[in-house]
Design a protein that fits this description.
Largest sheet: 6 strands, mixed
Protein name: DUF3105 domain-containing protein
Radius of gyration: 35 Å
Strand order of the largest sheet: 1-6-5-3-4-2
Order of helices and strands: HHEEHEHEEEH
CATH topology of the largest domain: Glutaredoxin
Distance between the termini: 111 Å
Number of strands: 6
InterPro entries: DUF3105
Strand content: 5-15%
CATH architecture of the largest domain: 3-Layer(aba) Sandwich
Keywords: Membrane, Transmembrane, Transmembrane helix
Amino acid sequence: MASAKNQNSPANARRAKLEEARRKERARERRVRIITISASVAVVAALVAGGGYLMSQANEKEEKEQQAKTSPVTGERSWDDLGREHVAQKVDYPMNPPVGGDHNQVWMNCNADVYTAEIPKENAVHSLEHGAVWITYNDKAPEADVKALTEKVKSTPYSFISPVKDQKEPLMLSAWGKQVTVKSATDDRVAQFMTKYIQGPQTPEPGAACTGGLDK
């Protein structure tokens, strides 16, 4: 039997301290592993949740766009059998602004173009034939609405805006064969009309140029 003196020797004490240090180090490593794994799980969960949210948002946006394309625009008017001949003279259109008919052989630039003065209607109609939406306003339109619609046009290809002083209503949107009067720039029908009719199924020449035409 070892003596008490041997059990309490300096060597035994050092071994005991070393074992204790090793035990503490193993415990610390276990804690680090647990924290690392927990953090990794949390990150993965966040990424999955974030991805699911983004996917949900994308799906929701796509569904809204699809609904806008398939649902009728409240209050819109439609015209069929519109002429499409190129002419050099002025055209007496049956609606104002015109939504189609014979037109000048040169189109108005309509790639997010803003016109602050009136433009030739015969050239604007040619732009509609290419699938553009034309936003128009008269002197009664609130300045804030004109500004907001102008900003919308600036960010929307195949659209253009100009004043038409002799139109009946303050704010109107026209596409080939389609037209709607809106109450304000925040009217939901603005976005719906543009989503549905920019390069929409009514377009006689989808994909035709909206640049390289008349710019003033």
